[in-house]
Amino acid sequence: MDSAFLTGGTGFVGASLARLLIAEGLKVKALARQGSDRRNLDGLDVEIVEGDLLDREAIERGVAGCRYVFHVAADYRIWVPNPDDMYRANVAGTELVLRAAAKAGAERIVHCSSVAAVKAPRGRARADETSEYASADEVVGHYKKSKYLADVLARRLARAEGLPVVVVNPAAPIGPRDIKPTPTGRIVTDFLNGRMPSYIDTGMNVVHVDDVARGHWLAAQKGRPGERYILGGENLTLKQVLDVLAEETGAAPPAFKTPYAIAYAFGAVDTALARLRGAEPRAPLDAIRMARRYMWFSSEKARRELGYAARPARRALKDAADWFVARGYARRPAEA
After folding, report:
1. What pTM value is reported for the model?
2. Residue-wise pLDDT tens digits, 96-112
3. How far apart are CA 114 and CA 173, in angstroms?
4. What CATH fold (topology level) applies to the domain 3-180+206-236+295-316?
């Protein structure tokens, strides 16, 4: 039986990937921090390897004997009190995992990057894998910058050093098992809980988390080392996302649009106050700055080379809303 090692298996995308790999007949090992929330792996036949992304011994135990390695773990926060922690996890951790996997003889290593590492064009054009930042100085926010640096590193290790690394760039995953929830999932919970009476003029590419998981597996089977593949779904404005959620749940659609200048000012004040309180801001300034551009993308390369396909965004949004409501993260309006 082929085996696979998975970082991030307790998380949102990783848990969906773990289920898929088991269904494909693989023996799965997953890295998990000591004391971490492992509910997403309940009932699954997964061998836990305790450690974190900077624990070389744990990583080497995990990758040993595995045909496939999927590096999905990342510090996914828009705001972080100590950015150095994020760079250590997302950049140094990536290099440790990829090199250890290659040294152990993995046939294919799939690095989960993000569309955050792809330069979004101006206006409502769709970016593809060729859209590159000139340097990290162009990238807004520590999360996006750390993912960009890791993306560049992974492709360099493949092209310059021959590591069998394929990069995938998921868009905005939505769906079940978002236990944190992620910043994307929080859009759904905040809307259902009445915390988003307005919207700003921005756009995102919404994709079902299970389709992202399938894209990882396809990349392991068919992806070309050194290449990256955008795993997206539908390009929607934020207003369209909230309207779909309103139609699927019965919640009131957003009432008005907030001008960008007002959103920016609110984000600046909220972030400054959060730093004084030592708490996470509700509207991080980096998130507002990121929203200045439409994050719209094309998955044509993944469709053409990997056979990738994604279900409608409405299905992803409905599945996410149903999961959040069923587990008490939010209430439907009729239940409030």
Report:
1. 0.92
2. 999 999 999 999 999 99
3. 10
4. Rossmann fold (3.40.50)
